[in-house]
Sequence to fold (229 residues):
Amino acid sequence: MSSRKRFWKSVTLGEQDGLFRPELDGRPIRLPKGAVLALSSRPLAQAIVAEWSRIPENEAFTPEQLPLTRIAGTMIERIRPDLTEAREALLRHGLDDGLCYRKEQPDSTVERIFEWLAKEGIQPSVTDGLMPVTQSGDYITGLERLLTRQNEAELAALGVLTQTFGSLLLALALVSGAIDQEEAVSVANADERKQLLVWGRDDELFRVMTAREQDSSEAMTFLEFSREI
Fold:
């Protein structure tokens, strides 16, 4: 990933029209498509100020060091203009969800997720085979209904978590509070743990598992700050 050197001296928090703006040397941060990085949540804006402040002076940096900024930018420039499209994109992941493919008896966390989904009126078809599962119309309707309840910040977090976990259902359970992050990561890392038991230490597997934990932590940090005013 390309890098740039820190070009600003100070990072401050501005406010305009009821929105909070991280500012570099008194100027607002512009996102890739030109929108100003401005947020309704002061705590989230303050956290973004902090991550820009942590970049050492005259040191090179990459977007990977600014995860809250990345997710906020996605929310503002890609999700906010069309919430319906954002929900439809997530729904497509849910039509062939990784959590619906069971290679063995599910653990207690997975069972709790399915119990929570049932309370939401969502009952996925599952399989222990390799062929794609066709979900019912009721499943799709229930998932659409649940996604409609998600605001722009929750949709932004779900976008990261769904890609990270390979499962919209697992991501929704985490965002909705049915399970916690440690439990979600444990479910997502189940296959890698099994491979480690069979083959022993594998640096690539450790890298995948570590990245999954970090990405989910960043998404949940963003979401938690966004829920504070």
User: Anything to note?
Assistant: The beta strands are 4-5, 11-16, 19-24, 27-28, 60-61. The mean pLDDT is 94. The chain has ten helices and five strands.
